[in-house]
Design brief:
Blueprint (H helix, E strand, L loop, with lengths): L1 H28 L5 H4 L2 H23 L6 H28 L2 E7 L2 E6 L5 H10 L12 E4 L6 H12 L13 E2 L4 H7 L11 H13 L9 E5 L4 E6 L6 E5 L2
Parallel strand pairs: 1-3, 2-5
Antiparallel strand pairs: 1-2, 3-4, 5-6, 6-7
Helix pairs in contact: 1-3, 1-4, 3-4
């Protein structure tokens, strides 16, 4: 039994270290709040942890028989580790393709843009026409303003295309502008918590209570929802400077 427990603990420690390095790096680089929540990353990580921290070490505990031939034991361990690595690669690749690149303000909405939202052709155009705000793999998520282009024909084409499932301007980084340049437009779109229709009555009440506890004025027009794929957080801005004061989960 001592042999089995030692094999189990070594396997668990190695798996935990590898997971911590992989997912810790992704979190620190791209998934800090609110990216982890908005992207639903916990679901992917949960699947990988089930395989790598529960199933893998448990199977090692079962098959680690000191009387088993070493070649047979090594073969079994290789199979288990291979499955674990496949799960880890799946999870890391999924999170890499879904990593947040931008938090955008466009027209009247705040939305998160992830790596898989951008086509290679759009990235190439951005690096030619707007290199300062073009995406690069090493860039952490940036807050940017994504206005429609000044050219009326181009703007109309984008709006009409979006209606029929085409790309939105937030998926076209060649049109992105620094966050500070859009603050005057942002101010015009801010709402009180009570005015945000996408929130239920219970969510409004809970958010107002939390904002009051944080010293934030929920009765002033200082908030907008930031949308992910299916989740959202409330972003509260300083009324004077428009700096972000808090991002709260409804």
């Amino acid at each position: 039994m001592r042999f089995r427990l030692r094999a189990f603990s070594l396997h668990l420690s190695a798996s935990l270290t590898l997971l911590a390095l992989t997912f810790g790096g992704l979190y620190v680089g791209w998934y800090r709040w609110p990216g982890w929540y908005l992207a639903g990353a916990a679901h992917v990580v949960g699947i990988v942890m089930l395989v790598d921290l529960v199933l893998g070490p448990t199977l090692t505990l079962i098959i680690a028989n000191p009387s088993k031939p070493r070649r047979e034991l090594a073969r079994d361990l290789i199979i288990i580790v291979t499955v674990q690595l496949a799960a880890l690669v799946y999870g890391a690749d999924t999170l890499w393709r879904g990593r947040p690149l931008y938090y955008t303000f466009s027209v009247n909405r705040l939305e998160m843009v992830v790596a898989s939202d951008l086509k290679a052709s759009e990235i190439a155009l951005a690096r030619q026409q707007n290199p300062t705000l073009a995406p690069h793999w090493y860039e952490r998520p940036r807050w940017i303003w994504a206005p429609l282009p000044d050219n009326t024909d181009e703007a109309t084409k984008i709006v009409q295309g979006t209606v029929f499932g085409g790309q939105d301007v937030i998926q076209m980084p060649r049109y992105f502008k620094p966050w500070e340049q859009g603050l005057s437009k942002l101010r015009e779109q801010l709402l009180t918590v009570g005015e945000i229709k996408e929130l239920s009555g219970a969510e409004r009440a809970a958010l107002q209570t939390r904002m009051l506890a944080l010293g934030l004025a929920s009765e002033r027009r200082n908030a907008l929802l930031l949308w992910g794929d299916s989740r959202r957080v409330l972003v509260s801005f300083d009324p004077a400077t428009l700096k972000i004061r808090a991002m709260l989960e409804p």
